[in-house]
Design brief:
The protein has about 500 residues and is an alpha/beta fold. It has 2 domains: about 75-150, RRM (RNA recognition motif) domain (Alpha-Beta Plaits, 2-Layer Sandwich); about 210-485, Nitrilase/N-carbamoyl-D-aminoacid amidohydrolase. The chain is built from 10 helices and 24 strands. α5 (about 225-240) runs parallel beside α7. The N and C termini lie far apart (about 65 Å). Keywords: Hydrolase, RNA-binding. This is Carbon-nitrogen hydrolase. InterPro entries: C-N_Hydrolase, C-N_Hydrolase_sf, Nit1/2_C-N_Hydrolase, Nucleotide-bd_a/b_plait_sf, RBD_domain_sf, RRM_dom, UPF0012_CS.
Length: about 500
């Protein structure tokens, strides 16, 4: 389709609208009279009410239900795009669902850089519905895209991590933690990393070098079928490697989530015993490190045939198991209102904090899920030299909504480390469990720098972030918390 800037201009206008003072036009077509205090002018109250038309459901001016500017249903918003995605790439994917009226990749109106999303308009609603159903999760240039009905034709949301309002003079925030980006440095998983973290060699426009090392964190929904879970995990390994990640972090219980009475038998099944070896082969083939949470059967001589260990396994890019960690703290809770879980019925607690292990993205300290509520292991790992803490998890919805993000950011701040938290999400078939999701990466400043989508229906997905160890070192030097600890007053962990 021919290039045109209609939507880009609309995005620019929308940004200006968002930052412009909110003034309503006079209904009489002229400058409104000054508001004066006059008890006799009862009709002035009516006049003022007419001057303030409804603005929809938020101060941003989005159309309210039933407004004059709704999405007619044939306009789709496509997110999660690689910054290298072209309109032709999108046409190739969406043309099979019906006649296309317009395809437009969105660009920043000031920098002219791609914004990582696009609009696709179909000739009719039926074709658009088919595209939403069929194209969600399709990969374009190694990225899994998200397709949803657009709220309107013009883009109003600023690009995450980039300022899209009217130009400002010399007021950009400084580089480093808490710098560029929305409040708290937040960026969702659809935000692309390519252009932001790549530099071109001046001698060759084709030569590209990385400033940082890319890590991937996964979000998925395990079931009681181990073969299906292995296929999903293997697919995520391939996707992460294709995107340039040097390490992938999978959630707790990636191998299976099943009713409690089945855990012992499933853990000792042939499929469960081959899960890690099969994933080792995939890691080697894809040349990527993989961390995965699995069920580990105890030694036969233990005599415990009903329980297992909740274990995190670290696999290198040669397919070798480098480290394993057995979860220390078990989720035994009985919360008023119905949440009763006794993990100790099916799980044997570990007895040791693992040693910190080097990896291509930094020194890793392994923990699992409920361990995050106890700061002592994180502090111990930090003392050993950990730069990155991992928390593969399967938080419940109730505890996750209340505490998940807070705990992850707290551990990052406590230790001035990156926190990588893969997560289970959604309802697990055959059980009463529903997991919270919200897999994310938190930097040492406590900012969320990547997070997986929470859009339903849930699909296996990844989020990416570059691990900047130089910035981590600078932060620890500039704010030397570790050297300021009063171990003369309280014990060192």
């Amino acid at each position: 389709m021919a290039d045109n800037d209609d939507w880009n201009d609309a995005a620019r206008d929308a940004a200006r609208d968002d930052y412009a003072p909110r003034r309503s036009a006079s209904p009489r077509g002229a400058t409104p009279p000054r508001r004066e205090r006059s008890p006799a002018r009862n009709d002035d109250r009516e006049f003022r009410r007419e001057r303030s038309p409804p603005r929809g459901d938020s101060f941003r001016g989005r159309p309210a239900p039933g407004s004059d500017n709704p999405n007619p249903g044939n306009n789709l918003h496509i997110s999660g795009l690689s910054l290298k995605t072209t309109e032709q790439d999108l046409e190739d994917v969406f043309a099979k669902y019906g006649k296309l009226n317009k395809v437009q990749v969105m660009y920043d109106p000031h920098t002219r850089e791609p914004r990582g999303f696009a609009f696709v308009t179909f000739d009719n609603n039926t074709d658009a519905e088919a595209a939403v159903e069929g194209a969600n999760g399709v990969e374009i240039l190694g990225r899994s895209i998200t397709v949803a009905k657009a709220r309107r034709g013009r883009a109003r949301t600023p690009t995450p991590g980039r300022y899209c309002g009217p130009p400002k003079k010399d007021d950009l925030p400084p580089r480093g933690y808490g710098g560029y980006g929305p409040p708290g440095g937040y960026a969702v998983c659809q935000v692309e990393w390519e252009e932001k973290h790549l530099v071109r060699d001046s001698a060759s426009a084709e030569h590209i070098t990385f400033r940082m090392v890319l890590a991937a964190v996964a979000q998925l929904t395990s079931t009681g079928v181990i073969a299906d879970n292995l296929a999903i995990a293997s697919g995520l390994v391939k996707r992460a490697a294709a995107s340039g990640a040097k390490a992938l972090f999978l959630p707790e219980a990636t191998d299976f989530i099943a009713p409690s009475p089945s855990v012992g038998a499933l853990t000792r099944s042939a499929q469960a015993r081959s899960f890690v070896p099969d994933l080792c082969k995939e890691a080697k083939q894809s040349n990527i490190w993989v961390s995965v949470g699995v069920h580990e059967a105890p030694a036969e001589e233990s005599g415990d045939k009903e329980r297992c260990y909740n274990t995190q396994v670290l696999i290198d890019n040669e397919g070798k198991v480098r480290e394993s960690y057995r979860k220390l703290h078990l989720f035994d809770v009985d919360i008023k209102g119905g949440l009763t879980i006794l993990e100790s019925n099916t799980t044997i607690p570990g007895k040791a904090i693992p040693r910190v292990h080097p990896s291509p993205i930094g020194a890793l300290g392994l923990q699992t899920c409920y361990d995050i509520r106890f700061p002592e292991p994180s502090l111990s790992l930090r003392r050993q030299g950990a730069q990155i803490l991992t928390f593969p998890s399967a938080f419940t919805v109730r505890t996750g909504a209340a505490h998940w993000e807070v705990l992850l950011r707290a551990r990052a701040l406590d230790t001035q480390s990156y926190v990588l938290a893969a997560a289970q999400v959604g309802a697990h078939e055959g059980t009463k469990r529903v997991s919270y999701g919200h897999a994310m990466i938190v930097d040492p400043w406590g900012s969320i720098v990547a997070q997986c989508s929470d859009m339903q229906p849930y699909k296996p997905t990844l989020c990416f972030a570059n691990i900047d160890l130089d910035a981590l070192t600078s932060m620890r030097t500039e704010m030397p918390l570790w050297n300021q600890r009063r171990t003369d007053v309280y014990p060192e962990l």
